[in-house]
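Annex B.
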Amino acid sequence: MAVLPSPHDLQQRLHDYRAFDEARQSEFDFLVQSCLRLNTERSTLQSDLDDERNTRRSWKKRAEDAEALLQRKFVVVLVDGDGYPFRKAFYDALATSGGSKAANELYNEVMNNLKTAEAFPSINADCDVLVNIYANKNGLARVLTACDYINHPSQIDQFFCSFTQSRSLFQFIDCGHGKERVDAKLRDTFRFYAYNAQCQRIFLACSHDNGYIAELDKYRHDMIVVPKVMLVHAAQTPSAAKAYAHLPFKHTRFDKVFETTALDITTKMDAAFSATHLSEPYVDTAKTQQAVNEATPIPTRSTHSSDNSAPGLQPLTPVNLNTKSTSQVASPPPPAEVARTKPPTPANSANGTADTKKSIPINRFGQRIDLKLRMPSTAEMDKFENRISRRKLCNEHHLRDNCEAYGCRFDHDPIDASMRNTLRYKARSIPCGQGSKSRRLDCFYGHQCPWGNDNCFNQKCGFIKNGLHDIKDLEIARFVPAATTTY
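C3H1-type domain-containing protein: predicted structure tokens.
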């Protein structure tokens, strides 16, 4: 018969069974918690994996779309139309779609340049060509009319209508009056395309003057923009040619499209000046006068120096032209800014023999009239700008020989007659503080707006403030003695 364990053994066994059950339960709890934790981690990793997969697919699609967009590459041609006139042959062919011929010739020049391997090895020859021509349409039309490119300013609409209709990406943009309007639009458009990945090349036709040097110089060390830009040279001033030669951009010429020399209105006007005498009646060439008026920017006033107007401004002073008789002129009546003379009768002489060189010309209302000045030639203007780029000329010294400023900071070095005429010409763009009642003989300021009351669109023009826009009658009625005192 088996012997039962002692009470002590039974208690010990019970304790061991309880400890084993507790250890097993603890192990079960640990395994369950581990499973729950691992399941949570797996869910998180699965979510992250799904996000990465979706992101990858999204970027892959965007990359494919971007690559598809980049397949349609294009080049841009930006033209300052005021400084880059088309060749006269295109305007002569106006009746046979001269504008369309100009557009096709420009397109061919661009494509031929693209096919040059050393210039553009990575551009497809079938890429799109976008052309924007920015200009002051009214001013350009008047200049072209004055230079006999077109017969009437309205014909410019016919030319550029044919130009834009020939190709869908060719545009002519009228920026309105004022040079800075054209400059601003061209600069901002250039900035827009400079970093555009689809735009492979930018042809810039704007190197006729120094107006864009500062903008282009910003990109001198930009390795994205520099290889993309191609300057198109045509007619240039000597200072502009020198300045653009120091820029790191490649350059070319489209001589079959744009004129290689600047349009010279002054040649015709200078010829007329030599034949004009103060005491002879004359009739102005209205379209030539208006062309220069429209193409000339509005100056601002300064004091006693050649800094009164910015370099490059060419204000139109009253001009007398007598190349044709009154019956031969078929153009509209002359603009208000041109003084029309008749045989004067000096106020201080009953027999009309007084010296008019020491008198002041006035109209029938007693308003002072500015006599004509010879318009400086392009070469004279370039010489003048080069001179004042170093130091501004002193108006009081050179035009009155009476500079009273102690330690004057302006240039008193000698100048020749042509330089003095150019300085006087520029000074005429500043309104006289005495207005039309000025009687100072050596007053070099302007006494009526040189751009004409009807052609000046500057609402802040200084001639308005001084009441010099109200002078309508520019016919010299008589001469009056000059003031004996200065002011």
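Confidence is low (pLDDT under 50) at residues 266-304, 307-354. Strands lie at 74-80, 128-135, 170-174, 199-205, 229-233, 250-253, 340-346, 359-362, 475-481. Further annotation is deferred to the next reporting cycle.
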